Amino acid sequence: MSISILKQLDIKRLYQVSISLGYNHQQTWHNVILPLWLPKLRLAIFAVAGYGLAVVDVALIIGPTHPSTLSMLIWQWFTDGNLTQLPRAAAGAFLLLSIVIITFGLLRLAEWWRLSYAISWQYKGAIQQHPRRIPSPIATFFSRGLLLLPLIMLPILAIWSFALRWRFPDLLPSRYSDRFWQQQLEPLQQLVSNSITLALISSILALIMAIICLEYRQKYQRGIPTILIAIPMIAPQLSLLFGMQIAISFVAGQHFWLWVSWSHWLYVFPYIYLTLDGPWRSYDQRLDQTARSLGLNGWQTWWRVKFPQLKPALWLAFAVGCSVSLAQYLPTQMLGAGRVSTLTTEAVTLASGQDRRISAIYGLLQGLLPLVFFTLAMVFAQRKTSKTHITR
To answer: pTM score, two decimals?
Structure first.
């Protein structure tokens, strides 16, 4: 999202103008680019904050009682066999929503304070040369080393999945075996199939809906407010899913696959829409006008002119949607009622106990599937589109 925003701001021009006026690199980024960049990234920051406050599966894996988070307590009340706990769970979901809204207000206040300082600096125009800062080892670790942790985890999981004997303090296992992969091969086929099917269905439907919404907004200069589209991103999942669970209880029949697909689509759509929002805004509509003047109709213009220009963004949005769908735990559990199992639900269940080797297999596959989707998206996005000649 930040990449698409920075493309809209024309960073090179702003940087060149600021440097020509005598401002250094740090002043340019903190007081010229940041005031333009931060408001546009507000929604993404809210999404990260809302996720951090309401996430359940991370607490289930790392440590549900050390201490328990509010979202974890609410989830325990939801899944309690005693029905008298449901009112408490509903009250907890409302409290969690209130905490998230208050947090958003504090973040908005911090943003206002930071931007007011930048605007004051812009009016004063004072040039203050700061001494060159030498990056500390801690800053270097957090800026570079921390980003490598997800890549380091995959090889470790791969080693654990084949480790037959790994004693402390040995650096590597003393014995290896593929026995655990053979034991889990049959259930993994069904789980991977369910996960990929849900990811493809929800991502394709969300991609089509996002394209329709963006085309409508571009044509008529009005559309659905972004804040409404982003509600599934910023609202706590427990608060939203509890209402959805109550709503589907009034529908006769047990359509668990339909409800799970619907919930995945609901959470995938905002990410795809916001991923495509920047490329759609930066698209030069004069290309469409030129194609229309040469005799192409609306569909031909979109397919032969606009689609090749936006194809990389579309493939990236599709990969983002698939990765979001693959990571959904609460929607699958609550609306699937335990009858729709995916790789994520089983990985979370196994991570709290069982054998580390089996947990490593599920964790490895859960990390590799999004990587496969992003790799395929990059490959298809870089393929050259066949040249088409526009004729009358």
So the answer is: 0.80
